[in-house]
């Protein structure tokens, strides 16, 4: 009887220790909320890559960024070489898991979220001109907080 009780308690202890590993704490779902600095843009016309622009900051200690806040608002912050900040754009946003719709000054733009992780965001903003030309901008961002 003592061996059976000891075996049962040991199994419970081992199961509890395995089930409560620290890895569980690191499996947080990616969120759009936070500050994102631009890494690069790719510009396409009618499916052909025209240009890749890698972003180089004036001062790497204070990069420009877009911040998506928990209350559904966003702000674009530009920093100069002396780290003086200016709010370039602000408004509201809706993220539904697939797209980000930003509204500022009465205008709404919708981007497709290609990928979102805890550290990286990749979006696609595509527009078609009145003459049928398709302009696609792919933005790459890194989370900075």
Characterization of the model:
The protein is mainly β. Helix content is 12%, strand content 52%. The chain contains one helix and nine strands; from the N terminus they run αβββββββββ. β5 and β6 form a beta hairpin.
Offer a few descriptive terms.
globular; single chain; mainly beta; 9 strands
Q: Count the helices. How many? A: 1
Overall mean pLDDT score?
86
Tell me about the largest β-sheet.
8 strands, antiparallel, barrel
Largest sheet, order of strands side by side?
1-3-4-5-6-7-8-9
Number of strands: 9
Unreliable stretches, pLDDT < 50, 5 or more residues?
1-25
**Strand share of the residues?**
over 45%
Order of helices and strands: HEEEEEEEEE
Question: How far is the first residue's CA from the last residue's CA?
Answer: 56 Å
The shape, in one word, is globular
Structural class: mainly beta
Helicity range: 10-25%
Oligomeric form: single chain
Brief digest:
With 145 residues, the protein is mainly beta. 12% of the residues lie in helices and 52% in strands.
């Amino acid at each position: 009887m003592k061996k059976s009780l000891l075996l049962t308690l040991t199994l419970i202890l081992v199961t509890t220790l395995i089930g409560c590993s620290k890895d569980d704490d690191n499996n947080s779902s990616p969120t759009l909320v936070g500050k994102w600095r631009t890494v690069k843009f790719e510009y396409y016309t009618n499916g052909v890559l025209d240009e890749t622009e890698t972003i180089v900051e004036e001062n790497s200690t204070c990069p420009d960024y877009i911040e998506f806040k928990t209350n559904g608002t966003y702000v674009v912050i530009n920093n100069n070489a002396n780290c003086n900040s200016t709010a370039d754009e602000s408004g509201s946003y809706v993220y539904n898991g697939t797209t980000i719709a930003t509204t500022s000054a009465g205008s709404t733009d919708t981007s497709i979220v290609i990928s979102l992780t805890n550290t990286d965001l990749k979006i696609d903003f595509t527009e078609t001109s009145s003459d049928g030309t398709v302009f696609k901008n792919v933005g790459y961002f890194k989370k900075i907080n």
